[in-house]
Design brief:
heterotetramer; A: about 150 residues; alpha+beta; Sufe protein. Chain: A; three-stranded antiparallel β-sheet; B: alpha/beta; Aspartate Aminotransferase, domain 1; Aspartate Aminotransferase, domain 2; 14 helices; about 40% helix; binds pyridoxal-5'-phosphate
Chain lengths: ~150, ~425, ~425, ~150
């Protein structure tokens, strides 16, 4: 489960820290106490930044770092595809080997395949991704409504 | 050997049940006809129990070690199996309790603590029937004492069926809950669900069905029943003791308050206040009956492998045969329907003025296990003016030869006390 | 191999527990250190369960056939064993429940429905502690919400003990019930019963003791404790899942109202009203966890054959050794008492800023099963400002070699995340 | 369990029917519905009559008949000794063979020894004996107080 990629991200997280954003959310995993505060900044359809701070296990921390690395700079549609693919991988219960197409979409995040075998840890891996989805929806709602954060 | 159309291959099935080889009283082969009280357990269920304890035993949920993951997967897998067995729309609608009695008490208590529109209070009425098991009477009596709600009930006809002639007067606009037994554990009667549910729905009352004597013997489809809650118990359906089920409609389980408080049923706890986990865990306080749930899952697998419809057919054929043969016994009076139509494989009777205790005891000396007494349904005995009955009840492993043994046994009882 | 004075012959004992031979993760021998969550079951208990199901399975009470007599004798025999195990003045004071959580909820509900002088209402206060398991917090929160009673609690000292300095302000004339844990499942602390009981008795409050983590590990004497109610749970003391115990003082059990209604708990039922059986049956609605009670009886026999004092001595030696060895691990902080005095064999700790999930997972990869999280005692984590702990807990089959394995495992965790 | 003596008493009960008495009690065994109404008539220390009516199983019926046969005409002290010995026998759980002394005291009632092995039936056998004890206490209370029944 602890692939080197995951440990690397845990020890040297990408983009950690809170910076300006269009929306901020705070998510908690009540069963283990993992927490994340996450902000999204959009520039039109492009994700300009995902910044975050939190406490939790290596899986939830590394997952947030991988998210930052993967999503920043991407178009929203592309980012959503990545998010959905990651969700699919995490819900696979370790049953299916990820295929090449998946690997291409997920890059480093493919390292989390092993986590999907551990139901108790899947929530950790998904914490930041759910927070990102939520924050993005908020940011878009505000953009649409023309409101400031 | 008597051959009846629709019988299962009991020779094969009986090999699965170790206890059926039991010899009692120095040489009498056991004839177990007390299945309405509890069923026997197949090897397949006992093996699963042993495997659980010998390999995977751990407390469930939140563990990160192998055993905890395995135990959780087995426990939650049992929930999937039970959900499929009763055709539940969602696995989250299946709550594990310790028995059907707890399931029924759970509903009664939730409705007492609930907010409107569910709350049962002094302005509301609760409807049950005169043929309920005590476990579906006393919880409602307690609720009515505690809240001031009025308890009403359907009476019985001479031939052991619900008297629904005054249904409009009994289930009224004030009725908030109607709770009734699907198959009576004393009369064997199968009740007309649809008529009752329709009237309950007309007045907006919740419907609770006690399926304790149905789940072991027939296909149970909670969606087809259109009930709001369905309760049953593991030990009567080849499962272990110590496990029961409450199925409830998801939106109700979301809206209704918890019953028991403790570990597992919470979302977050501080000394000042707590929030609760979503159903089903909201209603499962404390370490659940883990091995027993897993065992019930194995029982469900076992019953499904035989086929619930096949079991129903088997029991119907046997009941038809048994009713016919019993009515040949002089002075025997069946309490309940005297045909096999709309009835389950449970037959209560009296034998002249020989007391059921004596009937049961002399049958026991011949190795025949029946139950005697009021069968936790004393109002039925009061209704028919008898102190008690003798009850023979069959299951998937019962045979025509066992019916014959019972009839012979009863002849012996008559001679003995004649 | 490390030899400590007071250790049991674990080589012999471990042979009784099939699961301890389990190999996990392709070749790691299981090191089971999650005993505070649930214990493993000896062959002696599993054999009794199998025997029950293969020979004597029947519903209890009122049957006149051999199996029903046997099952009743086994079930009631288990009550005798448990009564002797806790030195109950009377066997009728032992109530079988499904787990400790139900036992505690039973008490809370009885007190809510009781008449004076026991009734808990808006003029009264309930006292618990900050180190309770959720199962001894939430029932009292629910009771306090439902009745308006005020919930108060003892806080904790830095080193994981109850802060009794304000006992006179916390337990007052208004206090009707004081409920507290004998041995904490997260801190390991053994609480000073006498001081609390004395104060409770002074103000006339009832005393409820949660002995879930005590019964498995030490001689439990309800008379010496001078409590009014004592709750514990079978699965932590070598017994099956699905069985718990509530011991209560006879006169209280006579005076207090029933909780769940149904079969077995009644004396006589009519549609209009019911009367209840004397305790313990008054509190055992429905078919009880028969096999599980019988299994608990076998567990009690097993523990007694080893000797509770010997088990305490074994665990004390092991705890002493474990505390010492754990404190050698850099960055390891024990949450709870840091000596083996007045503490049980449950040790919670944090390891630098490595999250307990990661600690547990990496230990699991080495075959070492510990529990991580808030251990159903979240207020303790809040109190010490930590999200969770890693918890290692020992039992009669635990060995110094397993402590060594844990310490080595933790070194590996540190290197891994270092 | 069904000794011939028991069956004889069941089929041809002694002294059945209600006659005049100094006290009357009604006892019920709620678990099986056995009932008995029993009257005692005393003449000083001598039991002049025990009359009864009831419904129930052969054991409870035969036990009442045996009681009538054994106790009528006896002195109270002797009757109490018989009642206590019978109680002892019924609570023996079939463990001890009744000894000669017991047999001498209990006469026909010794036939109930086999019943003591069946906990569910012990209450049936004891029903009339408990009723007799209760009725006698009442009768004595009334005699002492000089009241009429
Ligand atoms: C101290 C304490 N109290 C109560 C409980 C609840 O026991 P159960 O989950 O068996 O109801 C536990 C164990 O989980 C415990 O450790
Ligand atoms: C119709 C009916 N309802 C409820 C129950 C109660 O089931 P349990 O005793 O398992 O709670 C029974 C069986 O005893 C029953 O036959």
């Amino acid at each position: 489960m602890y692939q080197d990629v995951i440990l690397d991200h845990y020890k040297n997280p990408h983009g950690r820290g809170l910076r300006d954003g269009d929306a901020e959310v705070h998510h908690v995993n009540p069963t283990c106490g993992d927490e994340i505060t996450l902000r999204v900044r959009l520039d039109g359809d492009t994700i300009e930044d995902v910044s975050y701070e939190g406490q939790g296990c290596s899986i939830s921390q590394a997952s947030a770092s991988v998210l930052n690395e993967l999503l920043v700079g991407k178009e929203l549609a592309e980012a959503r595809r990545i998010q959905e693919t990651f969700l699919e991988l995490m819900q696979s219960k370790g049953k299916s080997e990820p295929d090449d197409a998946m690997e291409e979409v997920l890059e480093d995040a493919i390292a989390f395949a092993g986590v999907s075998k551990y139901p108790a840890r899947v929530k950790c891996a998904l914490l930041s991704w759910m927070a990102w989805k939520d924050a993005t929806a908020q940011a878009l709602g505000e953009t649409a409504g023309g409101k400031t954060a | 050997m008597t051959q009846l159309p629709g019988l299962l291959d009991t020779e094969a099935i009986r090999k699965d049940f170790p206890v059926l080889d039991r010899v009692v009283h120095d040489g009498q082969r056991l004839v177990y006809l007390d299945n309405a009280a509890t069923s026997q357990k197949p090897r397949q269920v006992l093996d699963v129990l042993n495997d659980y304890y010998e390999r995977s035993n751990a407390n469930v949920h939140r563990g990160v070690h192998v055993l905890a993951e395995e135990a959780t997967a087995l426990y939650e897998g049992a929930r999937d199996k039970v959900a499929a067995f009763v055709n539940a729309p969602s696995r989250d609608e299946v709550i594990f309790t310790k028995n059907a009695s707890e399931s029924l008490n759970l509903v009664a208590n939730m409705l007492g603590w609930a907010d409107e529109p569910y709350r049962v209070d002094q302005d509301t009425e609760i409807v049950i029937t005169e043929m309920e098991h005590h476990s579906n009477i006393v919880p409602w009596q307690l609720l009515s004492q505690r809240t001031g709600a009025k308890l009403k009930w359907f009476g019985l006809t001479e031939d052991g069926r619900l008297d629904l002639s005054e249904i409009e007067q009994i289930i009224t606009e004030k009725t908030k809950v109607v709770s009734f037994v699907l198959v009576s554990n004393i009369l064997g009667t199968v009740n007309p669900v649809e008529a009752i549910v329709r009237r309950a729905q007309d007045v907006g009352a919740l419907v609770v069905i006690d399926a304790s004597q149905a789940a072991p013997h027939m296909t149970l489809d909670v969606q087809a029943l259109q009930a709001d809650f369905v309760a049953f118990t593991g030990h009567k359906m080849c499962g272990p003791t110590g496990i029961g089920v409450l199925w409830g409609r998801q939106e109700l389980l979301e809206d209704l308050p918890p019953f028991l408080g403790g570990g597992e049923m919470i979302e977050t706890v501080s000394m000042h206040s707590s929030t609760y986990a979503p159903a089903p865990h909201k209603f499962e306080a404390g370490t659940p009956p883990i091995a027993q749930a897993v065992g019930l899952g194995a029982a469900v697998d076992y019953l499904t492998s035989i086929g619930m419809d096949n079991i129903t057919r088997h029991e119907h054929a046997l009941t038809h045969y048994a009713v016919g043969r019993l009515l040949e016994v002089p002075d025997l009076r069946i309490i309940g329907p005297t045909t096999a139509e709309e009835r389950g494989a449970t037959i209560s009777f009296t034998l002249g003025d020989i007391h059921p205790h004596d009937v049961g005891q002399v049958l026991d000396e011949q190795g025949i296990a029946v139950r005697v007494g009021h069968h936790c349904a004393r109002p039925v005995c009061l209704r028919y003016g008898i102190p008690a009955t003798t009850r023979a009840s069959f299951y998937l492993y019962s045979t025509p030869a066992e019916v014959d043994a019972l009839v012979e046994g009863l002849e012996h009882v008559r001679n003995f006390f004649g």
